[in-house]
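Here's what a typical entry looks like (EcsC protein family protein):
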Amino acid sequence: MDHYEQQALRELQQWQIRMNKKPSLFNGLTKGLQNKVNNVIPDKIHEIMTSAIKNIVRAALLGSEFTTKKEVPSGLSLAERERLVRERLRFYKKAAATEGAATGAGGLFLGLADFPLLLTLKMKFLFEVAAIYGFDIKDYRERLYILHLFQLAFSSDARRREVYQKVLNWEATILEFPSLQAIDWRRFQQEYRDYIDLVKLLQLVPVVGAFIGAYANYHLLDNLGDTAMNGYRLRFLQQITITPK
């Protein structure tokens, strides 16, 4: 291993410790608050959010519109690949912040429009990252991996530990999914919504919505970037006979 790979491995191990942490008391209190928030959000908003998640994620996993057309040179080192990932992450964080500010300043209806737009940005980013690390995003199994990384980034503490074990033992996990139809869409939607509903609700507040939208979207992409990089480091380093545990 070169110096960069050694540093990446240390960062990966620190990330793995975070992924394995048990749910905290604060997490339980947050979940209770989330349930109360869900009860006061109008049913129409719930329907819009659920429909957006289902349609966009299915399109990403079953269609071709999210595949990247950019060619990534073969034989790149881990350092070179991650330089490209960081460049794309900076682009997507700025795009998400700009979009969040614009929709947050527009009141209820534009605020709701942010939900599918942000979800689309997240999916596009994950597809680009997978390609940069050298994985074939036309393979449905790689799209399943993208879906699991998405869940890992935006799930409760308890669910996160469960998904992390599936990511860690990926070769066994893919045997559970003979096709994309085996995905538990209902659970996937609810976990994602529970993770970001409170933030998206605050984004609908007049005056402060633009600031909240920009700040929240920027950091949601930052969290996704950290999860994606370490999720693919896990497999990339495994390919060169390093097996983190």
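The mean pLDDT is 79.

More examples are in the samples folder.
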